[in-house]
Amino acid sequence: MQAEMPMLTPQQILRKRKAGEPLLPGEPEQVHRHTIAVLLENTIGALIRVVNLFSARGFNLESVTVGETDDPTVSRMTIVTTGNDRIIGQVLRQLDRLIDTLHVEDLSGSSFVERELCLLKVRYTNETRAAIMDTAEIFRGKVVDITPDTMTFELTGPTSKIEAFIKLMRPHGILEVARSGRVAMRRSSGSWLTHEDPALNLSAER
């Protein structure tokens, strides 16, 4: 006789979904890719503390980019990670507790713009050169270096565009690929660092 599935109240269902837990026994947890933006004080060791956090907690870290903002005392970090809602919630809480952190936001829950830079070196011959150049033109890739048998392209765009270009170049013989990792910014009229968005105004807190 098959055991009956436990009945869950609406509150239990909401709580489980928020935590990323399966609703039924044996049901796999939903894992998604998340893009997280972090504002940090521009201090020595800030990046190391973030990387050590992911390593110590066993969080998956796909890419991380960091650079100075228009305020030289503040750095902006973009992190790409994967996990269920429960894991991502832990990531956000742990990042927020770091001494250098000014603000943390999971951009995946809103509309945002993302870009990545890629340098790709590929072999070419007289027979394949035209096809390679045509493909690069479609992706708006720019030749930044050329030798008698290789070309190096510069390409910017969303991660999906970068990965599609790499896939099409692979049959020609890719020699090297260097990717910057994702940078992202939410679509809005305000800013984290100005009074235009009161909810994210840091100037009064610092």
UniProtKB/TrEMBL annotation:
Residues 35-109 form the ACT domain. PANTHER family: ACETOLACTATE SYNTHASE SMALL SUBUNIT, ACETOLACTATE SYNTHASE SMALL SUBUNIT 1, CHLOROPLASTIC. Dimer of large and small chains. The lineage of its organism: Bacteria, Pseudomonadati, Rhodothermota, Rhodothermia, Rhodothermales. PROSITE patterns: ACT (PS51671). Belongs to the acetolactate synthase small subunit family. Its EC number is 2.2.1.6. Keywords: Amino-acid biosynthesis, Branched-chain amino acid biosynthesis. NCBIfam families: acolac_sm (TIGR00119), PRK11895.1 (NF008864). One of its GO terms (molecular function) is acetolactate synthase activity. One of its GO terms (biological process) is isoleucine biosynthetic process. InterPro entries: Acetalactate_synth_ssu (IPR004789), Acetolactate_synth/TF_NikR_C (IPR027271), Acetolactate_synth_ssu_C (IPR019455), ACT-like_dom_sf (IPR045865), ACT_dom (IPR002912), AHAS_ACT (IPR039557), AHAS_small-like_ACT (IPR054480). This is acetolactate synthase. GO terms for cellular component: cytosol. SUPFAM superfamilies: ACT-like (SSF55021). It holds the Pfam family ACT_AHAS_ss. It comes from Rhodothermus profundi. Pathway: Amino-acid biosynthesis; L-valine biosynthesis; L-valine from pyruvate: step 1/4; Amino-acid biosynthesis; L-isoleucine biosynthesis; L-isoleucine from 2-oxobutanoate: step 1/4. It catalyses: 2 pyruvate + H(+) = (2S)-2-acetolactate + CO2.
